[in-house]
């Protein structure tokens, strides 16, 4: 398993933090708040597939932005 770099983690975190919606990453039976940089740091690896769950007033825009941010980091993610 290969972790991702600090820049990619910060980019994902900053993208998520720009939205009001609740953004949760499901990974290996755990639920991680994507707005938590520590949670992302200890969770994200390149060869994993993640599921995003987004709820809130700007969830559609958040989904588009986060799918792009995860793809830019070379991570596979799908929406719940």
TrEMBL record:
Give the SUPFAM superfamilies listed for this entry: HPr-like
A Pfam entry, by short name? PTS-HPr
Where is the secretion signal located?
none
User: What Gene3D superfamilies is this protein classified in?
Assistant: HPr-like
InterPro entries (UniProt xref): HPr-like, HPr-like_sf
Ranges for domain HPr come to: 12-71
Which domain of life does the UniProt lineage start with?
Bacteria
Name this protein carries in UniProt: HPr domain-containing protein
**Organism of provenance:** Paenibacillus pasadenensis
Supply the source organism's classification. Bacteria, Bacillati, Bacillota, Bacilli, Bacillales
